[in-house]
Amino acid sequence: MHRGPIVLPLALIAGGVVLLLSNLGYLDVDVPDLIRRFWPLLLVALGLEIILGATRARRSGSNAAPETLTHELGGATGAEIRLAFGAGHLLVGAGAPEILLGGTFEGGVRARRGGPGEVELRPDPDTTWGGAWRGRPARWDARGHTGRASSDAHLIGSA
């Protein structure tokens, strides 16, 4: 089960409720003064989210050992592989002809299959904050399809 960030979204919801109640006349609040005085709470919420994300990652063990994934080609006549990778170490190489994408992924990974012969990998948001901020960047060793099917590979990078 995916458990994403919780503190910052709850802070934004609470702020939105206060602003809505003020606009509807249920609260007598000076909104500009409220924002001027309490905007640092967003920084506190962001800091808590980073700390809690690191705690969740440590508790789940997702940063402790690499995760091994294998996605078979499954008879598809074409292959499309998308890797959305941020900061860290990325090694991309050739794999077995019958394998669409495989490898070891340390630091958290989310895989999403599209149609036949399609796969996309992204960093797992539950562990990305915890790994990168504690000085342990992601390490992905991805091996892509090298068989007879036509192949497209896309690398989406950001840091």
Main traits of this protein?
159 residues; alpha/beta; four-stranded mixed β-sheet; 4 helices; 8 strands; elongated
- How is the main sheet built? 4 strands, mixed
Number of domains: 2
- The radius of gyration over CA amounts to 21 Å
Proportion of strand residues: 25-35%
Structure annotation, total helices: 4
Low-confidence stretches: 129-134
Count of β-strands: 8
Detailed description of the structure:
This protein is an alpha/beta fold. It has 2 domains: 7-60, no CATH class; 67-157, no CATH class. The protein contains 4 helices and 8 strands. A 4-stranded mixed sheet has the order 1-4-7-3. A hairpin with a 4-residue loop joins strand 5 and strand 6 (118-122). Helix 3 (40-60) crosses helix 4. The longest helix has 21 residues, at 40-60. It is elongated and about 70 Å long. The chain starts with 6 loop residues before the first helix and ends with a strand. Mean pLDDT is 78; it is low at 129-134.
